[in-house]
Amino acid sequence: MSVEILIVDDAPNIVLSLEFLMKKEGFSVRSASDGEEALQAVAAKKPDLVLLDVMMPKRNGYDVCEAIRADPALQGVRIIMLTAKGREVEQEKGLALGADDYVTKPFSTRDLVLKVRNLLGLQSEPNG
């Protein structure tokens, strides 16, 4: 069974780089460019993990995180929030709303991959 990751970000360059990175790790990847599209994508097919930007049009990442956590059918979906806002108050808000982890942009791709693999309960290296 392949692991599916939903990448939600309104910056196409970030989506492209995250898609490349996650596909390279062997994950199946879908993407959404705003909060509403993200919720539609999650409802259509439950992902294993969501990489969720905070600052987006229509609905922000906090709203999306809260909506996912409020739906019992989506229990088990892991959420890593991505944001340019590194202040502690934003991190606390994301974690309080149910995010599993919080990554500040710019981020180390290696660290992000390790966080994803750890949250999904996978070995830290694809062939390790």
The low-confidence runs, each spanning 5 or more residues with pLDDT under 50, are none
Percent of residues in helices: 40-55%
Q: Characterize the overall form.
A: globular
Indicate the radius of gyration in whole angstroms: 13 Å
Q: How much is the average pLDDT?
A: 91
**Separation, N- and C-terminal Cα atoms:** 18 Å
What's the count of strands? 5
Element order, helices and strands?
EHEHEHEHEH
Class by helix and strand content?
alpha/beta
* Major pleated sheet: 5 strands, parallel
How much beta, percentage-wise?
A: 15-25%
User: What is the count of DSSP helices, taking H or I runs of 4+ residues?
Assistant: 5
Strand order of the largest sheet: 2-1-3-4-5
Description:
The structure is a single chain. This protein is an alpha/beta fold and 128 residues long. Helices cover 41% and strands 20% of the residues. It contains 5 helices and 5 strands, in the order E-H-E-H-E-H-E-H-E-H. Strands 2-1-3-4-5 form a 5-stranded parallel sheet, with helices on both faces. Helix 1 links the parallel strand 1 and strand 2. The longest helix is centred in the N-terminal third of the chain and has 13 residues. It is globular and about 30 Å long. The chain starts with a strand and ends in a 9-residue tail after the last helix.
What labels would you give this structure?
single chain; alpha/beta; 5-stranded parallel sheet; globular
Ordered list of secondary-structure elements with their pairings:
Blueprint lengths: L3 E5 L3 H13 L3 E5 L2 H10 L4 E5 L7 H10 L7 E6 L4 H9 L4 E4 L4 H11 L9
Parallel strand pairs: 1-2, 1-3, 3-4, 4-5
